[in-house]
Design a protein that fits this description.
The protein contains five helices and 14 strands. By secondary structure, the protein is an alpha/beta fold.
């Protein structure tokens, strides 16, 4: 069993299997009026449920854009349907991480996640704006992962929440959907954001997902703010800050341990501070006033990123 309580009921997304796009679990709504194509994606990882609650609610309410086109998608549905409360973290994926395959879509391989990414690619390529809804293994404050480009940070500032915007390059193990195609091209007007709403099964994670989705849709211009559920918006933070990620630490053998628990977004005053050990190798802060981004306090597989480090810009 998990030490993290499950504070909400999981949605029955099987009712959305047929979709209206020719691809299971993908719905496309064209307003018939000129405007951008906006994609909201849930379940990039099968146990990240807050986004699924949001997309399920929009579909159930018959939500439609007033201009442009809205794409609503559930990504790794096979992983979602594999959820087992006795082993809840195993439903993150079936064969591999769906959010690391986007540089290999035209290469060899036939995993569940590659097949699903190939099926979703036409919709991702069609989108002008993408919001990818995620959550986190550990309790942590919400984070907006804006990518390495100025346009991602600018879009995150327009959305206006949460407090911390993380400017990062993604994972060396494979490209994220957020960075695919025009989203990762500095000369393209397309924009994408990845929101980490908080711990997977906290009710607060759902509140964050609803708030960010409402703000993102309003910023996109395909709806008016008044068209969105009135209770989805939360008060905006007084200010946002941007954290530039400079270092990503991956465990070589899966035996990394922190010296103490870090909840994320702590600022470590002194460079050279030992944070933990990857087996016998100490991991230290590279400079003064180092921000710890999404530390993994749980054991992970060899090669997985356990910590990012950055500074406020």
């Amino acid at each position: 069993m998990t030490e993290h309580p499950i504070e909400f009921a999981f949605p029955d997304i099987a009712r959305w299997r047929d979709g209206n796009s020719g691809t299971p679990f993908v719905h496309v709504f064209d307003s018939g009026t000129a405007g951008p194509t906006v994609m909201l994606n849930a379940l990039t990882h099968g146990n990240e449920v807050s986004g699924a609650i949001v997309v399920d609610a929009l579909l159930a309410d018959g939500f439609r854009p007033q201009r442009g086109t809205l794409i609503l998608s559930f990504a790794n549905v096979e992983a979602y349907f594999s959820f087992n409360r006795a082993h809840p973290f195993k439903s993150r994926m079936i064969d591999e991480d769906f959010n690391r395959v986007w540089s290999r879509l035209d290469g060899p391989g036939d995993t569940v996640e590659l097949r699903r990414a190939r099926a979703l690619r036409p919709f991702v390529e069609r989108a002008d704006l993408l919001l990818d809804l995620h959550s986190m293994h550990d309790d942590c404050v919400p984070l907006m992962l804006a990518g390495p480009l100025d346009k991602g940070v600018a879009l995150a500032r327009r959305v206006g929440t949460p407090v911390d915007i993380i400017r990062d390059k993604g994972h060396p193990s494979g490209r994220r959907m957020r960075d695919y195609g025009g989203f990762g091209d500095p000369d393209s007007p397309k924009g994408a954001l990845l929101i980490e709403t908080g711990q997977h099964w906290r009710a607060s994670s759902v509140a964050v997902a609803k708030d960010v989705t409402a703000r993102f849709l309003a910023v996109s211009g395909i709806v008016k703010p008044a068209d969105l559920p009135a209770d989805w918006r939360q008060p905006a933070p007084p200010a946002q800050r941007v954290v530039q990620v400079t270092h990503a630490v991956a465990t070589r053998n899966g035996k990394f341990r922190f010296n103490r628990r870090y909840d994320g977004q702590e600022i470590i005053a002194r460079g050279g501070t030992v944070l933990g050990h990857d087996e016998e190798t100490p991991i230290t802060t590279p400079y003064d006033n180092c921000v710890l981004v999404m530390p993994s306090n749980h054991r992970v597989r060899a090669g997985v990123t356990i910590l990012r480090m950055g500074h406020v810009v």
